[in-house]
Every structure is written in structure tokens, then in C-alpha cells.
Amino acid sequence: MEVQRADVKATALSGVAGALLAVGTAGLSSPALANTALQVALKLACVLLALALIAALSAIRPSVRSKTVLMGLGHQASGIGGAKEVADAFETAARSQDLRAGAERLSTLAGLAAKKFKSIRVAVDLTVSALIVTGIGILTACITS
Fold first, then answer.
1. Maximum CA pair distance of the chain?
2. What is the pTM of this model?
3. Which residues of 63-84 are buried (b: 16+ CB within 10 A; e: fewer)?
4. CA 42, CA 45: separation in Å to the nearest integer?
5. What separation in angstroms does the CA of 71 have from each of 64, 88, 100, 103?
6. Which one, 96, 112, 116, 125, has the greatest CB density within 10 A?
7. Which H helix or E strand runs over 85?
8. Contacts of 110 (CB under 8 A, 6+ apart)
9. Distance from C-alpha of 59 to C-alpha of 110, rounded to nearest angstrom
């Protein structure tokens, strides 16, 4: 569930950062942009937005490494003589293996969600920084002109 939430947030953030990057790039290519302070601010904002977009896209990219756990049953079945005891030993081992596989899967998904949310946090911070830099550039351009 948390992995899906992270993917939705990262997708929305990718759209916002990408749109702002497109607007910033279009603003840089405008011939009417003569103020160097505003140009520097927009260039820095574009770099920050590109980094935010990379961070958001890295959160979307799946990165689950497959871990195969091989368990032998020999240590659990040793010293058991009858068919019922062997069947009980196999049932216990299968239950134990299912629990261990479920715990490993849960641990892997929790780690993946934590990595995704960290990338999203970085992308949000970079996007906010880009907006602040752009605002400072616009204020500087208004004050100096």
C-alpha cells in the first residue's frame, strides 16, 4: 500500500517538476530576458527542477532485487522414523518457510517504500528550492529595473 502511495506522489511530482522545467526553459529562451540576475536565477531553477525530476523518476523506477531463500529440510527431518512424523516435519518446514518468505517480502517492500519516500522528499525539497530561487530572481529583477 505504501509503495503505491509513493508511486502516485512521485508521478504527480514528476508532472509538476516537468511542467515547471518546461516553463523555465521557455523563459530562458525568451529574447526579452535581458536581466542577468533573472537569467542566473532561472538557470539555477532549471538545474534544481531537472534534479527534482530525476529524483522523482528514480522513485517511480522499480528497484526490487530478487532474493531467493533456499532452505534444506534435512536438519528438521533427522531422527524421525515414521511416515506420520516425516509428514509432520515437512508440514512444519513448509509453514516455517512460508512465514520466512512472507517476512522477507514484507521487509523488502518496507525498504522499497522507505527509499521511494526519501527520493520523493528530495524531489519536493528541490522543487521548492527552485521556486524560491525563481521568486528571488523575479524580485531582484523588479528592484534593479
1. 94
2. 0.70
3. eeeeeeeeeeeeebeeeeeeee
4. 5
5. 21, 17, 10, 15
6. 116
7. helix 83-144
8. 2
9. 14
